[in-house]
Amino acid sequence: MAIREIEAPHSDAPCLAEEDRVERLNSHAIVVGSGVAGLSTALGLAAMGRRVLLVTKTALGGGSSQWAQGGIAAAMGPDDAPLLHARDTLAAGAGLCDPRVVDILTEEGPAAIRRLIQLGAGFDRDAEGALALGREAAHGRRRILHTRGDATGAEVVRALTAAVQAHPAITVLERTFAWDLLLADGRVTGLLALRTADGSSAGDGGGACWMQLQAPQVAIATGGCGQLFAFTTNPPEVTGDGIAMAARAGAVLADMEFVQFHPTALVTTEVEGDAPERMPLVTEALRGEGAVLIDETGRRFMTEVHELAELAPRDVVARGIWRCQTAGHRVFLDARAAIGDAFPARFPTVFAACQAAGIDPRRQPIPVSPAAHYFMGGIDVDAWGRSSLPGLWACGEAASSGAHGANRLASNSLLEALVFGARTAEDMAQAPVAEIPDDLLRPALPAPEPALAAAAELRRSVRRLMWDHAGLVRDAAGLRALLATAGSWESAAAALPPSRTAGELRNLVCLGQLVAACSLARRESRGAHYRADFPSTDPLQARRIRVRLERQDIVVEGDLDEVSLEAEEVLAAVERVAGPHWRPEGWWR
Ligand SMILES: Cc1cc2nc3c(=O)[nH]c(=O)nc-3n(C[C@H](O)[C@H](O)[C@H](O)COP(=O)(O)OP(=O)(O)OC[C@H]3O[C@@H](n4cnc5c(N)ncnc54)[C@H](O)[C@@H]3O)c2cc1C
Fold first, then answer.
1. Ligand 1 atom at shortest distance from the alpha carbon of 373
2. pTM for this model (two decimals)
3. Domains and CATH numbers, the chain
4. What is the arrangement of strands in the sheet containing 366-375, beginning at the earlier edge strand?
5. Which of 330, 346, 370, 507 sits most deeply, having the most CB atoms within 10 A of its CB?
6. For ligand 1, which residues put their CB under 6 angstroms from it?
7. Taking 50 as the threshold, does the pLDDT of residue 5 lie above it?
8. CB hemisphere CA count around 325 (13 angstroms)
């Protein structure tokens, strides 16, 4: 493996303590993130003869991928076809999918699954040995592949990780936090990363060093940003780092207002009232089997909300629960009558999570809450994963390709990570291997020190405010209040010494503002975005909102003429989408 490594403090880095090191690594391509998207991209690049540096802030395989339960959608059944899968995907996307991208997703899906099986991923099969295909809400056919019932993500990650570890052209840097992209003459030329001693947030002060990772091509596969919200099913490392990094480098982002909330995540007694790090999912299949939603008095409230009650669309159920909670109630999923003693055998993962929380779902109702689950927004990319910045690609949940529109169809995201991870690799491998000059690093940065308590406190307030004002039900007053507060977050986050904790916070603060600004800009309700002050869908707003940061201003792109310049003009540009008469103070700083 011909990777050059220089372990010497850079001469222009006076603030680095003597024992800190700046390492430089060169490669053909860098992939950031080791979920399904990052692993697929790295494998694709290596298969085409590229030397790859795979950078991940956790151990290999961290992120949401390993937690995916339901499965992977692909048109593989005898009664199914990519066209039918595309039709269901477009319907869920509520008018904002890119039909060309959806066609690619659904047509290339079956081949991506076959590649995965060749790599050794095992899927559940029927008695005849054929793939057992499940059916989920809003899918018109049985097309969900799964492993051991509800352990699909773990199996896919296992198979991909083994292949990555076995490939001699892939060098893996675990516990390495990508901090920012490096740019030269408007091109991405690598990234600055912080390598921590033990990879945990708590350990990010100890033994850390900066690394300059150079490559003419960088792929961001860092997942979504569920940790923006007080309640989320995403693990703690899903903090939108790659999206924020790309935004700071000037890349165009898209669909930032679209966050999917899952109706039922498990509320554990220890964390009730506070923000848990990650909430286990309580699968929709339980409601499909007849489990009902009740409040603490035993009242079944969804019958008053929608004619389909608990089987109403995901966002309707999530808002029904949210309204019940904001009226002061606690909400439970009652599976005692519908499933009862069969629970452990039929839903082993949920049963184990309940047990760990001290709940026996055979005898007790399960406390649940909606939780941020999937981010449809992200780095704006084309069908080959190309971003607006030369040298930068993105795939998986960090990217916004137009595959999901305003709402993701269940089980389409693992498929998207596989299909577009492979396409991203194919496109990157065709780009020329340019020489990167050696003198890019100017890390006038202080040595990392822990400022963990302050950062953790601020992270809690960001997540709480985002939940309250940019969560399931939004309105202009709340979003403006949020944006007005965000200025103080910025300065507090900027004052923290560099560490993984500080870096994640900085990224959450950046994305929080973008999500809030775009939510304010979309003056309608569509897909996963619900505005209490604009509850209807407006056909005139059936277009994607694209934004980018310029010197910390939010610039609206897309159908509008590109506007950058001063804050007043930026506000005016946002206003043209958001409508007139809003003036939050200081949010653009
Ligand atoms: C509980 C749960 C259940 C789900 N169930 C399903 C399902 O059944 N079907 C389905 O299709 N989808 C499901 N999803 C969604 C799906 O799992 C994700 O959309 C998908 O796995 C995203 O893959 P990814 O590779 O883009 O990101 P992730 O899997 O989130 O991986 C991101 C990677 O980036 C790394 N990273 C992040 N920031 C940095 C940084 N600064 N520096 C270095 N590395 C970084 C992380 O460590 C991680 O390795 C589920 C999600 C959750 C949370």
1. 53
2. 0.90
3. 25-66+169-257+375-430 (3.50.50.60), 72-156 (no CATH), 262-372 (3.90.700.10), 452-578 (1.20.58.100)
4. 259-266, 366-375, 331-334, 292-295
5. 370
6. 32-38, 55-58, 62-65, 67-72, 152-153, 177-178, 221-223, 233-234, 237-238, 241-242, 281, 374, 396-398, 411-414, 417
7. no
8. 23
